[in-house]
User: Fold this.
Amino acid sequence: MKRKKWNIHRFLGIFYPNRKYKDRLFQRVFREKEDLLDLYNAMNQTEYTDASELKITTLEDAIYLSMKNDISFVISATLNLYEQQSTFNPNMPVRGLMYFARLYEAYINENKLDIYGRKLIKLPDPQYVIFYNGREEQPDMLELKLSDAFEGKEGIDYSLECKAKLLNINMEHNQRLLQKCKRLYDYSYFIATVNANLDQGIRLVEAIRKAMDICIEQGILEDILLKSKSEVFHMLLTEYDEKKHLKNTYNEGYESGQREGYEHGQQSGEYKKLISQTCKKLRKGYSVEEIAEFLEEDISVICKIVEAAKMYAPEYDIEKIFEQLWSDK
Assistant:
């Protein structure tokens, strides 16, 4: 099975679904203002209660959070950027720089600030926090800096800096923060339960479903899991498929030079067979996720086939679908 999947991925140059296809689970968990305010309070040792004062904007994988000044209390204007990561990425400050540039540009335009005038404009203070829950061991807190990416030529005084605070939110880390924010604790517990199932050798699809049942029974994320169980399942399936792809990319690239002898005909034959099996399931009304599970294939591969197959429904001409996919390579 592994060799088959490697061939198909290499044959078509398939990549995993874009993260913008659906919100990540972290964003779904903190979609409500009340939950995000609770996280904000836990992070900043504050006790604000008026969630209506929050302004939320989602930027790709990140959540931008600001709070208005109100007559009932005064809070220092802060531009908060929260992002969840399940794989360690030292380049997060570079992303942060690009995020903040867009956010400040929007802030300046929205508030009609004159950056060409003689008066100094005032901007909200930037705070960039990364909530890390990957399997690679990391400390409770780690500061990442944009300047670490610079060449480091002697005598240069850097004109730019962007700092990101990485917080490890796995269950055994940052216990005080997890205890202060139940939603964050529940999220961490749910992911830990999925991982524990995977460590027992349970397949991903069943590992997610079993974790959902366990958490619902224990009142963990119960409201989301009962109301949006299918949505959460699809989010996690995509996230874990994506993470698996990132993990395997290096090894696949390294091994590719040793596999050049694998014949094109055998690759195309395997892929046409997969296209045929997928189309048979489509005719019977199966969803993308159900097809991926039944065929034990990565959901990204099935998504790509289904998208191409739509052009040739309901006959589903296998050769034309194959040619379409090959032309998009």
Confidence is low (pLDDT under 50) at residues 1-22, 68-76, 249-264. Residues 198 and 207 are 6 Å apart (CA to CA). The longest helix spans residues 229-256. The chain has 13 helices and six strands.
